[in-house]
Every structure is written in C-alpha cells, then in structure tokens.
C-alpha cells in the first residue's frame, strides 16, 4: 500500500482527494493536514510514503514545509499539487526537495499515476513546470580544465534515470543488479549535490547529458 498524507487548507480539496484516493486499491490516506506546520508534524508522526502538498497554506507554506520534511525524512516523496505554474513557485518548490509538481486541474487518473510514478522512482512534472525549469536557470559554467565528476557508468545510470526509468528498469537495461544501480544513484546525488532523481535529471538536461524530451513526458 502507498501511504499518502494530504496537506491542503481547503476542505473541499481535501475531501475530493480523500474520496478518490480511497477508491485506489494500492493507496491508503493516512492523514490530512490543514497547514504546512501540521503537514510537517503529521509527516513525522505517520511516516507516509507520499505527501500531496499544497503551496499556499496558513502558518507555514508548502515550500518551507517541504524543506523541513526532506531534511528530517529524505526518503519521503513530496508531490506539489497547486494552482500555480509560474517560475516564482515552481523553481523554489523543486529546490526545496519536491519530487513532483502537478496542477490541481490534473485528471484524477493522472494524479494517481503520478503518485505511483514517484513510488517507482520516476519523474512526474507538469509540462509547464518542466518548461519553466528548463528555462528558469542558467547552467553552471564548467571551466575547460574541470573534469565532469561522474564515472562513465554513473553517466549511463544518469541517462537512464532521466528517461524516467525505475531502478529495476535501469538494472535491466545496463545488465547490473538493482543494488548496484542504487549505489550509483547515491554516488550521483552526492557528486552533483542534488537531493533526488528529479533534480539529478534536470542537471543532466541542463548540461547536455541527455535529451530533454524524456523529462517532459
């Protein structure tokens, strides 16, 4: 079962999400938060797999809540679910550690698939969010004398990761074990100074290490 925590200050939104998610045989809504502070507290108490996080909430917004959650429990995936798709919201949300970003007009079936994608370790970004992320930052200039920090095999893993593949799929493509893939991904995160697969994939696209089209799916 995928354990989901809903964080949104609007009662109608929470009721709608709760009703639909409870119809999914592989999902269990373990709690509801009405503000960012409560989202942090309930995440610590309930240890969900996924937090559906609104951006604008009282007491503490979704970005600050995400930062605190990822700092304390980095294994928990945060999926931003909001009405905002502008640069001032998308980029800070991803920088805070959100693993996915979707808009509230998303179709219910697409939302549950986004949740499942996060559990499989895949990217789940709304096309508008992806476009902003691609254009919203200037890539770091790499001096000619600086060697790219990843080994050839780590670059292979990063390329497969950016295509949205799970660890199992990467292992199958590269003919290695899932344990080996996990080790490579951990090394990639450390070397690139990123927190999750989404940020690693964005780094790869920014530096021309893979094609951006796979990230936009």
From TrEMBL:
One of its GO terms (biological process) is regulation of DNA-templated transcription. Keywords: DNA-binding, Phosphoprotein, Transcription, Transcription regulation. Residues 143-208 form the HTH luxR-type domain. Pfam families: GerE, Response_reg. InterPro entries: CheY-like_superfamily, NreC/VraR/RcsB-like_REC, Sig_transdc_resp-reg_C-effctor, Sig_transdc_resp-reg_receiver, Tscrpt_reg_LuxR_C, WalR-like. Gene3D superfamilies: 3.40.50.2300. Residues 3-119 form the Response regulatory domain. GO terms for molecular function: DNA binding. The modification 4-aspartylphosphate is found at residue 54. PANTHER family: TWO-COMPONENT RESPONSE REGULATOR. This is DNA-binding response regulator.
């Amino acid at each position: 079962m995928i354990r989901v925590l809903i964080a949104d200050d609007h009662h109608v939104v929470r009721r709608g999400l709760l009703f639909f998610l409870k119809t999914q045989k592989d999902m269990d809504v373990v709690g509801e938060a009405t503000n960012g502070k409560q989202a942090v507290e309930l995440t610590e108490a309930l240890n969900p797999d996924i937090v559906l996080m609104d951006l604008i909430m009282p007491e503490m917004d979704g970005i600050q809540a995400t930062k605190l959650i990822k700092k304390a429990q980095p294994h928990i995936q945060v999926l931003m679910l909001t009405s905002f798709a502008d640069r001032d919201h998308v980029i800070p949300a991803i920088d805070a550690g959100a693993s996915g970003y979707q808009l509230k007009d998303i179709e219910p079936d697409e939302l549950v698939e986004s949740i499942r994608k996060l559990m499989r370790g895949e990217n789940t970004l709304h096309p508008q969010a992806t476009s902003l992320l691609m254009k919203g930052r200037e890539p770091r200039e790499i001096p000619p004398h600086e060697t790219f920090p990843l080994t050839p095999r780590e670059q292979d893993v990063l390329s497969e990761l950016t295509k949205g593949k799970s660890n199992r799929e990467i292992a199958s493509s590269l003919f290695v074990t899932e344990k080996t893939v996990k080790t490579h991904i951990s090394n990639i995160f450390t070397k690139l100074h990123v927190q999750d697969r989404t940020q690693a994939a964005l780094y790869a696209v920014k530096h021309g290490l893979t094609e951006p089209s796979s990230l936009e799916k």
